[in-house]
Amino acid sequence: MENAGVKKYFDDAQSRIRSMALVHELLYQSGDISRLDISRYITTIVNELHASFHHAVPTCEPRVEAGRIEMSIDQAIPCGLIINELLTNALKYAFPPGWKGKPEVMVSVRERDGMVELVVSDNGIGLPESLDMDRTQTLGLSLTPMLAKQLLGTFEVDRSEGTRFTVRFPRK
Description:
Heat Shock Protein 90; two-stranded antiparallel ribbon; alpha+beta; 172 residues; five-stranded mixed sheet
C-alpha cells in the first residue's frame, strides 16, 4: 500500500516537471525564446495527460479551446502547472466507477480586454461542498491558487454543474 502512495507522488511530480520542461522545448522550437504560443502548449499538455489517464476515463476526450495567445515564459509555466493540476484531478476523480453520463472535460484559454481567462471544467461528480479550497491538504489544489496569485490573478471555483475552475490574470 505504501508503495502505491509513493508511486502516486512520483507520478504527480513527474507530470509537473514535464509541464515545465515542455515550455522550454516549445520555446526552442519556435525560434523566439521570449514568447510562447500558449494554445500549442496547452494542447500538448492536454494530449499528454489524456494519454496518461486514458485508462481511468476511456470515453473522455478532453476538449481544448485556445486561440493564439503569446505569453512569456514567466506566465506560461504557471499556466501549464495550473492546467496540469486541474486536468489531472478531473481525469482522476471526476468520473468514479458507477458515474452515469458522457464524461466531458474542457480546457479553455482566451484573452479579453488585456486579461487572460483560463478555464478547466468537467461535468463529473464535482468537488464536495465541505472541501475548503483555502485549507485543502492536497498539493495540487493548494498549488493552483498560489500559481494564480503568482500571475497576479484571481482563482474561482464553480461547483454548480460538475466543477469549473477559472483563473483570470493580466497579460504581460
